[in-house]
Amino acid sequence: MTRTTTIAMAMAMMTTTKFYLCLLLVLSSWVEAQTETRNQTEPTHNLRRHDDVMMPMKKPRIINGKEVLVPRYPYFSLMYGRSLCGGVLIGPRLVLSAAHCEDASTQFRIGAFENPNDGEKVNIRSTIVHPDYDVSRFDNDIIIFQLETDVNLPYIQLGSDYVRDGSYTVIGFGDTDKGQDLVLSSTLQEVELEYVDSDKCDDGHGDRDEVKEDMLCAAGKNKDSCIGDSGGPLIKKGANSYDDTLVGLVSWGRGCAEDGVPGVYSRISYFYDWIVETVCDNYADDAPSYMSCGLNPSFFVFTNKPTEAPSKQERITSSPTKLPTASTPTQMLTRPLLPISPVSTLPDTIANNTMFPIDLRKDIEFVAWTPTVELQDCQGDCDTDDDCRGDFLCFKRNGEAETYEVPGCKSPELIANSVDVCINPTARI
Questions:
Q1: CATH of 47-373, one of 2.40.10.10, 3.40.640.10, 3.30.450.40, 3.40.50.2300
Q2: Looking at the whole model, is its pTM more than 0.85?
Q3: What are the start and end residues of every segment in region (Disordered) (predicted)?
Q4: Residue 381: strand pairing partners
C-alpha cells in the first residue's frame, strides 16, 4: 500500500467520524428541543386553575399523601359545587360531614375516587346541624345529611370508643401544596397520621384553649389534611372497607402540615349518642341496623325537660346559599379535600411526650378547611384560556349537562349548563 493510499484512507475515516459526530449533535439538540417544548406545553396545574380539578393531573399528591388506585373507600362522599368538602356515608341515605360544609353543594358524589365527577350522584334532601355548633370556634362542627335516594354502596360504622392513641387515615381531594397556591387533586388521596394528645395539640396552636373535648388531633411529618378536605373522614383502617371505623371528621387547623401544629378533627365518640338519637328521632327509616332505633329505649337519657330538638331544614336545591363565614379576627380561607400517605413516624415536634416550642412557633393564619372561594364574575362561553379576557381561565365542564354549578358564578342558572365558562381564578370572598 502506497503512502498516498494510506493518507487517503485516513482522511476518509476522519470525514466519516466527523459526519457521525455532527449527526449525534443534531439528534441531541432535537431531543433537547422536544423535551423543552413538552415542558412548556404541559399544564403546570397550579391552584388557580379550577378546571384542573376536572381533568387528570400528573402524579397528584396531597401534602405527601398517595393516590387511591382502587375503590377502597366506597363510603367516601364528595361535595363539589360552590365549594369543595368531603363527607362519609353512615347509612343507605345518611351522610356525616362538618357543619361548616352545609352549603358546599346540593348533592354528593358517593364513592368518588378517580375524579371529582366519579361515584354515584345523589341529591341532598334535608340537613340537621348540631344545635350547639359555633361557627366562630368550630365547636360541635358536625352535620347529618339525608339523601333523596338510597345508595347501594357499603357505609362505614361509627366508632364509639374514645380515641387516645394510634395511627389513622384521612382521605380527600383537597389541596396538595402547603404553599400559598391552592393545588387541588384530581384523584382521591390518602395519608396516614398519628394521634396527638389534646393538651399537646392545643400547645401547638398557641395554648389558646381552642382544642375542646369534642375534638381530636392528628399529625405526621410533612403530612396533613388541608383546605378542601373539610368534613372528610378520619378512619381506623381494618382489613377492608367493611372493617373500617369512623373516628373523626376534618374540621380545622392552622396552615397545612406545619411543623408542630396538628390538624383538628371532630371526635366521633363524643358525638356518638347525639348522632344515634338524632337519626332515630328524625330518620329512623334510614338508620343503619346497628343503631337499633326503637329497640333499646334505655339507650337514651330522659329528663323532665327535654333538650330542644335540632331543626330539620329541607334543602333548596335550585339556588344554593353562601357558606357561613366565621366571625373571627383573622380572614377565613378555604380549600379542597384531603389525601393520605404511607405510614409515618411522629417527628419529635409532634410526639406526645415532647413540648411544642411555643416561643419559636411562627404566627400562622387560621384556616378553615372548606373553600369559601367564590369567583366574582363569569365571562361566558370559551374553548380555551385564550378565549378569556385578562387572567380569567376556561372552566371545563366536559359537556356534561348535569349541573349549573360553576365556582363563583353569581347567576349560574343564566348560563347554558353544557357550556365551558371563563372564570376569575383569584377572587376570594
A1: 2.40.10.10
A2: no
A3: 310-329
A4: 421
